[in-house]
Amino acid sequence: MSAASSHTGPEDPGLGSGTLQNVKKVFGMEGASDLVAVKDISFSFSSGEVISLLGPSGCGKTTVLKMIGGLIEATSGEITVSNSLVRGPYENVGMVFQTPTLMPWRSVISNIKFPLEVLGKQLTDIDDKAISLLELTNLTEFKNAWPHELSGGMQQRAALCRALIHSPEILLMDEPFGALDELTRMEMNDLLLKVNYQEKNTVIFVTHSISEAIYLSDKVHVFSKRPAEIKKTINIKLPHPRNPTDRYTDYFKQLELDAGEALGVIR
Amino acid sequence: MNGEIIKKIIYPTVGFIITIFLWDRYVVIFDLSEVVLPRPGIIFESILSEYPALLSEGFETLLACVYGFILSIVIGIPMAVLMTDSKPLNLMFYPLLIATQSVPKVAIAPILLVWFGTGIESKLAIAFFISFFPMIVDTATGLRATPKELLELARSLKCSYFQIFIKIRFPSALPHIFSGAKVAITLAVIGVVIGEFVGGSDGLGSLLMVANSQINAPLAWAALVFLSFLGIFLYVLVVLAENLLIPWNNTYSK
């Protein structure tokens, strides 16, 4: 049984899957030569998979993530998500950023419901969805709190709920746990996996933490320094559900070594 | 809890009493004439005997301040929105806006008087002219300070310009708008008093001028006391509105 097949995706296998083909991004800079952020990236992902983009800071992995989400237009190449070409933002995407970016003027629950409010979805079973997400992330008793009353990890959990409230097929996460302490980060990793088993959406995860990438993912794409290229793709064949002790197995350490070598931090 | 009361009420009260006492002793010891500096007790007597006039003139001043303040909000905020959202408008009018602020406000008062007459209109014009600037600048700063990620989130959810403005940019600018409003309300009071000095026929400012010309120092000082109370009262109103409208901000800053 392969790692990816242990997930069961949505009914239509195309939903939540995607392909990037020879994607390139050049930023025109005022009064300077153009900046090639992403040189040539191709990879694909299938429904329900967790894919990590691992690379050094400023290497262009966030740019790739934003192109997948339709927030940045690729200079050349083609991006397809859920069987349709990405040409700008689309509804079926949830985003989690490095900072929680909750709206301080809204309560936790109201922050979480924000996407539905602006997407104009009817308000039938929203409350059930919100309640189940709050339960899943252990935030039930804080649903009416102000964001600033929550710890950093709790805020990020709320941000995760917000990203999932409209049941997107694809979840884009940009170093979401980078600002958290190591212990909270490990807890959040397990929480994310738990959420992923329940929600069954595809996750594209940007990080510069080797162990986080390996622990979470079915596949890790190791990026070069800018301009971004994929140096190596590592298939993670750890069984699901993952267990924190997996981090200390020889197989895991070997994967870390492979990733470290690809990144150039281990020679 | 008790310590808080002592800190917040007892200490300032004691400081106030000491100041009043020293003031009174100073006048007595140096035998100052009442015209130069009346004793606090005499000012208090003047307030007691003249309070109907002080109250009715104070009410005129208060109304002018509130209207001028509202004008600066109603005109200042939309102008700030236009200037943050349109680069050409910003480039065209921002320098002009700065220039208006380098004009001494007192100097422009006589001109506004010619335009608007001696009624409430000229007072409003001066109050507006002084107080709209912090409203514009702070609102614009607030609108520009909207967290980038929130805007990105909005974009990924395909929010319209209007949705982004109402649901994200405006609320996120509110703390800045209120800090502008706190400055604006203080400046509006100054503007109205300038207007009353220069050509008003009513209000505490003109009462103060009249008292001065009659060498009625206690009444002039009484008008001054009322003016300060009025300023504090209006400022507190804005702070109360702030706490009411953005409760998340108050605890946020703690």
Description:
The complex is a heterodimer of chains A (267) and B (254). Chain A has 267 residues and is an alpha/beta fold. Chain A has a domain at 4-92 and 168-263: Rossmann fold. Chain A has 7 helices and 10 strands. Chain A has a 10-stranded mixed beta sheet, sandwiched between helices. In chain A, strand 9 (219-223) and strand 10 (228-235) form a beta hairpin. Chain A is globular. In chain A, 42% of the residues are buried. Chain B has a single domain (49-253), classed as MetI-like fold. Chain B has 10 helices and no strands. In chain B, helix 2 packs across helix 5 (120-144) and helix 4 (105-116) crosses helix 7 (161-198). Chain B is globular, with a radius of gyration of 22 Å. Classes of the chains: A alpha/beta (267), B mainly alpha (254). The A-B interface holds A 66, 69-71, 89-91, 93, 95, 97, 99, 101, 103-105, 114-115, 117-119, 146-149 and B 147, 149-150, 152-159, 163, 167-168, 171-172, 174, 246, 248-249, 251-252.
Ends distance of chain A: 33 Å
Radius of gyration of chain A: 18 Å
Helix-strand string of chain A? EEEHEEEHHHEHEHEEH
Q: Report on the biggest sheet of chain B.
A: none
| Uncertain segments of chain A | 1-10
State the CATH superfamily name of chain B.
MetI-like
Q: What is the CATH third-level topology name of chain B?
A: MetI-like fold
Order of strands across the biggest sheet of chain A? 5-4-1-2-10-9-3-8-7-6
Task: Record keyword descriptors for this entry.
heterodimer; A: 267 residues; alpha/beta; Rossmann fold; ten-stranded mixed β-sheet; globular; B: 254 residues; mainly alpha; MetI-like fold; 87% helix
